[in-house]
Amino acid sequence: MNMEESFVKVPAFWEKTIKSGVMPKLCSLMNQEPAGVLGVSVCMDGKDFDYYIAVATEKPVPAEFVAYEVPAATWAIFECIGAMPTAIQELQKRIVTEWLPTSGYEYANAPDIEVYSDGDIKSPTYRSEVWFPIEKKK
Q1: Residue 107 and residue 128: Cα distance in Å, rounded?
Q2: Which of 58, 62, 79, 114 is the most buried (most CB within 10 A)?
């Protein structure tokens, strides 16, 4: 899936998930860092794109959920301030088109992680993070 397509499909997935009523049960599993509800984009080695709405946990995962273990990686962490989903989508574009080409790093073979804190996601002062997997350019 390309970036523009994901910018349509991922917010629709969030909306569907929130409306399903599963979020409180998912959040009750949260017991590790990073704290918050996570959006985990997995498209490693140019293969299929998977997107998980997740929490970091060591608790047993109920059968209705899928466990995904994020591999160890080095992350560039970017703070995002603004209403969702526009603010995070604009930040992700800037990371790829502005920061990455001049950073001395390249995209690593690991998932991208969005970290969503408590608060009003439509507020212009809402805070979230993008964890971007990196490695030194070869």
Answers
A1: 21
A2: 114
| Residue 81 β-bridge partners | 127
The pLDDT of residue 47 is 66
Residue-wise pLDDT for 89-121, tens only, equals 999 999 999 999 999 999 998 999 999 999 999
Task: Give yes or no for a contact between 112 and 41, defined as CB atoms under 8 angstroms apart.
Answer: yes
Q: Which residues 6+ apart lie within 8 Å of 39 measured at CB?
A: 10, 14, 51, 52, 53, 54, 113, 114, 116
CA–CA distance, 33 with 68 (Å, rounded to integer):
15
Could you tell me the fold of the domain covering 3-136?
Multidrug-efflux Transporter 1 Regulator Bmrr; Chain A (3.20.80)
**What are the boundaries of each domain within the chain?**
3-136
